[in-house]
Amino acid sequence: IVDTSVTHRQIIEIAEKVAPKELETIELFDIFRGEGIGEGKKSLAYSFSYRSLERTLTDDEANGFHKLVSDALVEGVNAKIRDH
């Protein structure tokens, strides 16, 4: 959840700046504004795909990559991260 002034481009730029080389794709799949989100806010739902060309990533590795991106979004645009 972010302020309505935050753009998709800002989210992508922040994610790409901190993401490891294993980040393969970022897809915005839903935008919601309305009851339950808060005045002046919107919910942006993204799918992040991580993949290594050398080996299978562990859950811990993928979760660690996702935490790097999530933490950067909290810091960069004051995002509130909701899992699932």
Spell out the blueprint of helices and strands.
Blueprint: E1 2-3, H1 8-18, E2 23-32, E3 41-50, H2 59-77
Antiparallel strand pairs: 1-3, 2-3
Notes on the structure:
The chain contains 2 helices and 3 strands, in the order E-H-E-E-H. The protein is an alpha+beta fold. A hairpin with an 8-residue loop joins strand 2 and strand 3. The longest helix has 19 residues. The model has no long low-confidence stretch (mean pLDDT about 95).
Keywords:
single chain; 84 residues; alpha+beta; 2 helices; 3 strands
> How far apart are the first and last residues' alpha carbons, in Å?
13 Å
Q: What is the 3D form? A: elongated
The percent range for helix content is: 25-40%
Query: Structural class, judged by helices and strands?
Result: alpha+beta
One letter per element, helices H and strands E, the order comes to EHEEH
Short description:
The chain has helices at 8-18, 59-77; strands at 2-3, 23-32, 41-50. The protein has 84 residues and is an alpha+beta fold.
